[in-house]
Amino acid sequence: MKQRTALRRPKAQSHSSFRLNTTLFTAVSVIYMELILKLFTCDKFFDAGLFIMPLFAVLPALLLSAICSSMKHRTAKWITASVLILLLILYAAQTVYHGFFGAFFILYSLAAGGVGQVTGGDMISSTFSAILRGIPAILLLAVPVVLYLIFGGKHIVYRRYKPLHKLLTLG
Fold first, then answer.
1. How far apart are CA 144 and CA 141, in angstroms?
2. How confident is the model over 129-156, as pLDDT tens digits?
3. Nearest CA to 36 among 131, 133, 149, 142?
4. Cα(104)–Cα(98) distance, rounded to whole angstroms?
5. Is the pTM of this model over 0.85?
6. Alpha-carbon distance 111 to 57, whole Å?
7. Which residues lie below 8 Å from residue 41, measured CB to CB, with a gap of 6+?
8. Which one of 1, 27, 51, 105 is CB 3.0 to 4.6 Å from 61, fit for a cystine?
9. Interval 41-76: pLDDT, tens
């Protein structure tokens, strides 16, 4: 019998061939959030900390990439989104706290009653005032999260690595 060979249609090309690695996107997002925090909270923008900042952004990006590389694509997408939202909340809280107290919060200040001091009666209006003053910074801090939620599924690449390779990369 004669076999029929079906003509295959070429796969539809996506509108954009732009692809970004999750490690690079996360590192750039952390650096961007650090720059926004520095812009809105520090008097001196250009100093030594500006050049050290990328070094500290690489570690969370590598950790997130290592975790996501062992997951399915959908799970990795949710983990990345959750981490970016958590970072947004952390940086937004730092911005508002700095606008209110003029200092950055640390875990000790939270445990020692720093938050309890703000929730006292007449301090609530001052708290809302600090939040309102921080809205421009919070909106700018949300840009990586919004970009990820809109374009992340189509343009962020999650590479799956063998466990031995991951151990060698981390160790």
1. 7
2. 888 999 999 999 999 999 999 887 677 7
3. 142
4. 5
5. no
6. 26
7. 94, 95, 98, 99, 104
8. 27
9. 888 888 887 888 888 888 888 888 778 777 787 888
